[in-house]
Amino acid sequence: MLDLEIVPELSLGCDTWEFVLGMHFSQAIAIIQSQVGIIKGVQVLYSDTNPLGVDIIINLPQDGVRLIFDPIVQRLKTIEVFNMKLVKLKYGGVHFNSPEVLPSIEQIEHSFGATHPGVYDAAKQLFALHFRGLSFFFPVDSKLQEGYAHGLGSLIFLSGASPVVSKMSLYSGSNVSETRAPPLPLSCYHRQIYLDSAKVLRSTNGYSKGLKLKLYTEGSSRSLEHRRQCFTREVLFGDSCQDVAMKLGAPNRIFFKSEDKMKIHSSSVNRQAQSKRSDTFFNYFTLGIDVLFDARTQTCKKFVLHTNYPGHFNFNMYHRCEFKFNLKSENDHDCNYGKKSSEDIEVTAYAKWDEISAVVPSARPVVLHRASSTNTANPFGATFCYGYQDIIFEVMTNNHIASITLYSTIPPLKQTEQSYQEHKLQDISLSVA
């Protein structure tokens, strides 16, 4: 049985770990993975058809705890304890819920102090006590309804026994029904860089030049108080590995692309030369971005922007990349690209493919099948890849965009036209160790 401390409007945890309101989904999963054998029977609940309208939930049925994440920002907004008998809870170092201490109304009032009069919900037959960032819900017998209607100070217990908490909610703010996920807390930064927004830089002829990233991380002041530090960086096609590392810091992981599925179409001379070198991925998981460097020139030739939708093969590997750019149909190339026309569309991480395909022409898609490292089948099924100009859209079966790949249309230095065409046909799938 877990023995946890609550901090209203902040966290639920113990000495070694804690679930903090505002933390990212992947950080909560990392905590659970670190407690293998202690936290068991984990369930992840989400909507396949409406991933932006339904909360993402991590359910811990054997511990009576439920973590509720906002589906858009994917940060923790509510912590629920739905079965008080499966967990020990304390506040200020003193237990108010355990096998020896029942969480009755008197016990809650004793542990947390005075509050406003409780609220009775006749439809659900629940009586609620609300503190700032914390709410307790009590099941109400119909014979006690009259006494409850007058608030906490005049409760009447005909049976002589006080009702016991059936559910507890921990959240940010003063109203549990209007709770929102707070910004990522400083305690969850862990010396990493995070993405606020990404703008795709497009040239006047409608092709990509690179990315303009608004970033934030943990800074410090002379008073030794940690603060959020914001800054902007541009990464462009043709930047070297050193350029990108200097702008974005060290990647979370470096992956050497050893498999080239298009190599069978190359001449024997090219295959032999390519076998001696490998393209390199810089994986920035907290930015939701991958940067691919050419093996020959060591310069950037491709960006992969991830949307981190549940139900995708790479879900929980990346934070969502909040990208944005305007896309113009090829039919409007004679117009001034700097001005929107009736056929312009703004592409974001939340756009659907049917909205985009209504503006841009699309050929028959390439079906992308992924498999795990153990060659087991992908339980989420295939995705579909559509190409337009220098962009590849990876689309899920629910019509949401799983990733966007931007590739350079300028051949690397000293690269032959034949090898350049082979580069454009390369497998677009992203592999990570």
From TrEMBL:
Signal peptide: none annotated. GO terms for cellular component: trans-Golgi network. InterPro entries: PHAF1, PHAF1/BROMI. GO terms for biological process: Golgi to plasma membrane protein transport. Belongs to the PHAF1 family. This is UPF0183 protein CG7083. It comes from Bactrocera dorsalis.
